[in-house]
Design goal:
40 residues, mainly alpha, 3 helices
């Protein structure tokens, strides 16, 4: 899970709060979110 990866510090290097706030087209589907954010 992405939240567990973040908690453990294994998130993609380019994932930041600023990037998440700026993403206006983030998919609603969690599987697609993982792909877009670099977890898949």
């Amino acid at each position: 899970m992405a939240s567990l990866a973040i908690f453990e510090g294994r998130q993609p290097e380019d994932l930041s709060t600023s990037r998440l706030i700026a993403m206006t087209d983030l998919p609603l589907d969690w599987v697609e979110q993982r792909q877009v954010l670099g977890f898949a």
